[in-house]
């Protein structure tokens, strides 16, 4: 792999930025200063240092974010703030993207990675990966509504959802707070499911995706690296 690509993949900057770092003599390979961006390195065996800091090459990166409201699940946008904007420059590795989408006004668990294979596994309908949400509903989710959700809802456009798991956490005469588990990802699915019951969603917060649970120590807008155990569990078939 070319040295400039290696450094760019490690998040040290764009190709042009890392070329300047190399040209300035700030990079060594196996103890020797190199000045050529075209220098070939073995990312698994060569010792690469930038500004005297040893770099450990990674192919893939994995983060858990507690997504806040008013931020979109996209890699970039000309007019709106994205979840990628919440990452530090150091953590904005090449080709990172959010796994799936949470609506702009939806909060909670979001995985950000550059591992396309894992993303496909988590999002593919064939794998039936469950997603758990805490939902505040304008309306009363009574026994009849629970049964409808559990059996699968016919949406207003005629689409049929798969059976969901629903738990009513609390309710009053106006609102219900429920925990809803689904295994598919139709567009605005939960809002449309609740809408088909002639109610609407007031707040929506994802707390689980597959084996991964939202870290309650993460405030809205914060994120952390996934542990090796969390990554391994997500990859299990």
Automatic annotation (TrEMBL):
A molecular-function term among this protein's GO annotations: rRNA pseudouridine synthase activity
Isomerase recorded as keyword: yes
Superkingdom, natural source: Bacteria
EC number: 5.4.99.-
Annotated source species: Liquorilactobacillus sucicola DSM 21376 = JCM 15457
Protein name from the UniProt record: Pseudouridine synthase
PANTHER family, alphabetized: PSEUDOURIDINE SYNTHASE, PSEUDOURIDINE SYNTHASE FAMILY PROTEIN-RELATED
Annotated keywords: Isomerase, RNA-binding
């Amino acid at each position: 792999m070319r040295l400039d690509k290696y450094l760019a993949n490690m998040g040290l900057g764009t190709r042009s930025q890392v070329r300047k770092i190399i040209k300035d003599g700030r990079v060594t390979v196996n103890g020797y200063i190199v000045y050529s961006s075209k220098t070939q390195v073995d990312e698994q065996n060569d010792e690469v240092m930038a500004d005297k800091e040893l770099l450990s090459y990674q192919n893939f990166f994995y983060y858990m974010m507690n997504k806040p409201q008013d931020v979109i699940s996209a890699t970039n946008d000309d007019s709106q703030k994205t979840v990628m904007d919440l990452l530090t420059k150091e953590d904005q590795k090449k080709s990172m993207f959010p796994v799936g989408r949470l609506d702009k006004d939806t909060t909670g668990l979001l995985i950000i990675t550059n591992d396309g294979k894992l993303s496909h596994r988590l999002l593919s309908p064939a794998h039936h990966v469950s997603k758990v949400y805490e939902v505040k509903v304008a309306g009363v989710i009574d026994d009849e509504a629970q049964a409808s959700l559990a059996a699968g809802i016919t949406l207003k456009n005629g689409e049929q959802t798969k059976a969901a798991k629903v738990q009513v956490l609390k309710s009053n005469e106006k609102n219900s707070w429920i925990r809803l588990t689904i295994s598919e990802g139709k567009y605005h699915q939960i809002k449309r499911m609740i809408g088909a019951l002639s109610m609407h969603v007031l707040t929506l917060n994802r707390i689980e995706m597959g084996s991964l649970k939202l870290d309650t120590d993460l405030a809205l807008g914060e994120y952390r690296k996934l542990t090796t155990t969390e990554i391994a569990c997500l990859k299990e078939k």
